[in-house]
Amino acid sequence: MIAATVCPSDVPNCAGLLDINLTFVVELVLFLVTVYILWRLIWRPVIVILESRDQRLEAGRQAAAEAERRYTEGLAEVQATLDRARTEARDALAAAHRSAATGAEEVRAAAHLEARTITDQALAEIRAESEIAVASLRSQAQSLAVAAASRLLGRQLDEKHYAGIAAEAVGR
């Protein structure tokens, strides 16, 4: 058991629990000096380091938020650029198809026109050659008709005079 020490009144220099003397004051001063030294040398630098760390963490969070915002904006820009590029590529491809179709149609039309021109020229040449051949045949038929008539009649007929008659007979 712990017994409380009570100083009898007849003992000089007996310190009780509640007696304040010079030792208590010295211990209190030493305690306060120790607390001040610890505050100056350890706690304050630790608090400064912790506050600095908190500030760096907050700056890092803000930088991360800013980087994420910039990333999101950049991603949106890239997506918009890709969409524009896809649209432009689709438009360019459609324009190329239209241009190719137009060019093919122009080439087809030019080929048809050239074929028609060649056909018309060939038909004109055929008609001209046919007319020349018919004229030659008529001329030969007239000559043969006059020669045949001359032999039948037994006399020489004038070819110029009877050529008109022979032409009517041949069906000119």
TrEMBL record:
Superkingdom of the organism of origin: Bacteria
One GO CC term on file: plasma membrane
Residues annotated as signal peptide: none
Membrane-spanning ranges: 20-43
GO molecular function, one term: proton-transporting ATPase activity, rotational mechanism
UniProt-annotated location(s): Cell membrane; Endomembrane system
InterPro entries noted in UniProt: ATP_synth_B-like_membr_sf, ATP_synth_b/b'su_bac/chlpt, ATP_synth_F0_bsu_bac, ATP_synthase_B_chain
Pfam family, one: ATP-synt_B
Major subcellular location class: membrane
Keyword vocabulary terms for this entry: ATP synthesis, Cell membrane, CF(0), Hydrogen ion transport, Ion transport, Membrane, Transmembrane, Transmembrane helix, Transport
Topology versus the membrane: Single-pass membrane protein
Family: Belongs to the ATPase B chain family.
UniProt xrefs under NCBIfam families: ATP_synt_b (TIGR01144)
Subunit structure: F-type ATPases have 2 components, F(1) - the catalytic core - and F(0) - the membrane proton channel. F(1) has five subunits: alpha(3), beta(3), gamma(1), delta(1), epsilon(1). F(0) has three main subunits: a(1), b(2) and c(10-14). The alpha and beta chains form an alternating ring which encloses part of the gamma chain. F(1) is attached to F(0) by a central stalk formed by the gamma and epsilon chains, while a peripheral stalk is formed by the delta and b chains.
Function text: F(1)F(0) ATP synthase produces ATP from ADP in the presence of a proton or sodium gradient. F-type ATPases consist of two structural domains, F(1) containing the extramembraneous catalytic core and F(0) containing the membrane proton channel, linked together by a central stalk and a peripheral stalk. During catalysis, ATP synthesis in the catalytic domain of F(1) is coupled via a rotary mechanism of the central stalk subunits to proton translocation. Component of the F(0) channel, it forms part of the peripheral stalk, linking F(1) to F(0).
Protein name: ATP synthase subunit b
Gene: atpF
